[in-house]
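Batch job 17 of 40 flagged for manual review because the log was empty.
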Amino acid sequence: MSNGHTPSEHYPGPMHRPPVHGEPDYAGYAGAPHGGVHAAHGAHHPKLQHHFDDMDQQAEASTLGMWIFLVTEIMFFGGLFMAYLVYRAASPEAFQEASAHLSIVWGGLNTAVLIFSSLTMALAVRAAQTGLSPKTQVGWIGATMGLGSVFLGVKVIEYTDKFREGIVPGPHFNATMWEYPTGVEMFYSLYFVMTGLHALHMIIGIGLMTVIAWMAWRRQFNSAYYTPVEVSGLYWHFVDIVWIFLFPLLYLIGRHYDAAH
């Protein structure tokens, strides 16, 4: 330029685009930049990371990342399901005998609890999507955590009964009470591994929901930004679905086999 000044460089990106009519107002958002939506170089959501062009792209990337993670989890649990099917095919009578000893009441209760927890999780996501009050968002998230805690409490009762009755695989396994002790011990080995890992995932989910609830209470989520709630919901639904497969495999198939014979 003739005055000797070098023209400033402008790079494409959300910080330099002109204000768009009708964009969401971030002024009341916790952590919004000083001056509101049109501060500095234009509208820029405070949660938009620099390597994304817009909030939609960021949400799609986060969702894709969660789905990729869940695929690895499916392969992990898939290996356990395959082991169950192989050993059950080798000892069907033993697995029937062992399965008949599990309580359908406790298993059915836990199934209903997790189904309702999926409902409350979906309502929590919806509350964040529609920008409902933090109290409403935290309420649905808290209900989800409460139902998850009920599930874990039931598993503690079931595990306690197994230890008391001496049917935990290992040196203290009571083989005298079974017609097929070797196969029964294998069944309960798989039972404790599969349900124990599932319970661990549930504990992680409750911890994750604790963080999400804290963020919701601090007004972090609104109609423009709710991705953490959504991807956490995907994880929670996955854990619930795993149990939907575990329940019939462990609690019901043995009795179905017995009825067929």
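Reviewer: the log was empty due to a logging misconfiguration, but the result itself is present. Residues 6-23, 30-42 have pLDDT under 50 and may be disordered. Unflagging and moving on to job 18.
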